[in-house]
Amino acid sequence: MATPQDERTIPLQQVNVPVLNLEWIKSRLNPATLERVMQVWGLVGRSPFPPSSSGKAREGSRRISAAGARLLKEAGIIEDSFSARTGGWIIPFSVVKEKTTGLRRRIAWPRDKNRDDPYEANVSLLHISHYLPPVMAEAASCLDVRSSFIVSLPRETRHPFRCRVEDGTLVELTRLPMGYKAGQEILQIIIIISSCRGDGGSLPLGCTSIGVRRRLDR
């Protein structure tokens, strides 16, 4: 995890990757799969707080640096919040890639949403010994940082994913963070389906022996 000094001295990794076209992907799903995706997707905009609390009690102390916020805004990953309703808070931080001379990767941990949403992934009991250690670890919500921020959040669902810049400006994510537990299955379905394009164009995805993943480290 990056220290306050790292935040100011180590450049933030910039990967210009467009968001996936969710509407196009939904149009290619069969009815049963689409229903499942929409059931899970329906959790995204739900606030983990009672309406009267406005989320104020759980605001964290970590903030995004002014320089980092500027880059994230330019990349279209965050934007200023203008709605009075705050449905939840994320914990923003970054990690240093591989070694201290590497770049930083920005992570958004939606702790409140992960605690509240009644969503649990289904896994094969045959392999449960392999799944339990990473799932039980608190850092499991920061899985696969390379594949973060590729699904657009509709404006009405962004209020549960807010934080502040160091100058106090309230901002919110415009894209679904990979750390959101209900997002894992959504992204898996989206990526697998979108890899089956039949338009003859080149695929924006890379296939590996363990599955299909978006190649962000170009």
Domain count, please report it: 1
> What CATH architecture would you give?
Roll
> How many helices in DSSP terms?
7
> For the residues shown, what is the average pLDDT?
65
**What topology, given as strand order, has the largest sheet?**
1-5-4
Look at the structure and give the CATH class.
Alpha Beta
Shape: globular
Helix percent band: 25-40%
> What is the CA-CA span between the terminal residues?
23 Å
| Beta-strand content bin | 5-15%
State the order of secondary-structure elements, H for helix, E for strand.
Answer: HHHHEEEHHEEHEE
The CATH topology comes to: HIV Type 1 Reverse Transcriptase, Chain A, domain 1
Q: Could you say which structural class the secondary elements and strand pairing correspond to?
A: alpha+beta
Largest sheet: 3 strands, antiparallel
How would you describe this protein?
With 218 residues, this protein is an alpha+beta fold. It has a single domain (5-46, 59-118, 144-194), classed as HIV Type 1 Reverse Transcriptase, Chain A, domain 1, CATH 3.10.10. The protein is built from 7 helices and 7 strands. The chain has a 3-stranded antiparallel β-sheet with strand order 1-5-4. A two-stranded antiparallel ribbon has the order 2-3. The model is unreliable at 131-147 and 197-218 (pLDDT under 50). This is Target of rapamycin (TOR) kinase 1.
Summary keywords:
7 helices; three-stranded antiparallel β-sheet; single chain; alpha+beta; 218 residues; two-stranded antiparallel sheet; HIV Type 1 Reverse Transcriptase, Chain A, domain 1
